[in-house]
Amino acid sequence: MFIWQRDKNISFDIEQNSRVPKVMISDKTKLFQILTNLVSNALKFTAEGGVRLTLNADENKIFFKVIDTGVGIATEKLESIFEAFKQADGTTTRNYGGTGLGLSIAQSFASLLEGEISVDSETNKGSTFTLEMPLGKDKKISIEHIVQSASLKVCAAPFDDDRENLSEEKKTFLVIEDDIKCAKTLYDTCREKDYQALVAIDGESGLALIKKYKIDAIILDYMLPGHDGGDILSVLKKDMDTNHIPVYIISVLDSLGDMKSFGALGQMQKPLKEKDILNILQELDNASQRQDARHTENKRSVLEGKKVLVVDDDMRNTYSLSKLLSNKKMKIEIASVENEP
């Protein structure tokens, strides 16, 4: 495939070796984000010439190479470009723009997928970024199938949580976290503070739990298998049934931006200390109480000022009911009903 960019006189083409299989097992969303970032960077930092995406494979791995004829990167800068907010140099940032954040996230995603990104470059001679990914041939089903299945049923918790013994007297927190050790720490701290807690190791299972149980607050890891925390937060805030639930974002990334602008109550970088977890739980509890009070007030305001017609052939019932409703500041009209002979 050969494409010319409209705003630049550069080419973009894709080459695929015949050894590349038609199907691989991976997280489609994160893989797409990685490749999009690498290709976008190559196009951005290439003023003339072209960008080429090549695909090759051996028995166990697939190799995505993004090759450009752009500004290149000095040898001493190669390792640092995967750090957040680092680019080739200040001049590059001024000339081409960007935050230098994308490569850091791409590298983190690659590690989550058991892959690796490497780079070969030289100043003014272009760059080659190689994404090396396992094919996952030993797995029985694809990630896409797992995601579809998770959306239809509640996946089992990684350890025994409180879903089988929930009480209406206690608040229920949902922990969505794929790091089992971290999830267990969050769960144990919830229990110590007298909250109930449910645990999901991916976003899809978390959404299924929210549909099934009454959830008062959510602790949401940003980097999840399948749909990431940003996707899950967006789904929750767009749904009228869930947009009131306070959500606290946690992540190893220090470069998420302000998640409050997307509806999160707050955010904190991992690893979390005990005092951090306690602060998160307290903020969620306070927010949940405010939401409960708001919900009660909304229900009251809906009832107040409404007109109700009371029809009953027993005047004693009519009187009792009218007195009850009048206390709710509702307008009462009584219709008399005569008993037929």
Describe this structure in words.
With 341 residues, the chain is an alpha/beta fold. The chain folds into three domains: 133 residues, Histidine kinase-like ATPase, C-terminal domain (Heat Shock Protein 90, 2-Layer Sandwich), CATH 3.30.565.10; 153 residues, Response regulator (Rossmann fold, 3-Layer(aba) Sandwich); 38 residues, no CATH class. It is built from nine helices and 13 strands. Strand 9, helix 7 and strand 10 form a beta-alpha-beta unit.
The CATH C-level class name of the largest domain: Alpha Beta
CATH architecture of the largest domain: 3-Layer(aba) Sandwich
What sort of overall outline do the alpha carbons produce when their principal axes are compared? elongated
Q: Please summarize the sheet with the most strands.
A: 6 strands, mixed
Distance between the termini: 89 Å
- Spatial order of the strands forming the largest sheet: 1-2-3-4-6-5
Number of helical runs?
A: 9
How much of the residues is beta strand, in percent?
Answer: 15-25%
Helix content: 25-40%
Computed Rg: 28 Å
In short:
The protein has nine helices and 13 strands. With 341 residues, it is α/β, with parallel strands linked by helices. The strands form three sheets. The chain has a six-stranded mixed β-sheet, covered by helices on one side. Strands 8-7-9-10-11 form a five-stranded parallel β-sheet, with helices on both faces. A two-stranded parallel sheet has the order 12-13.
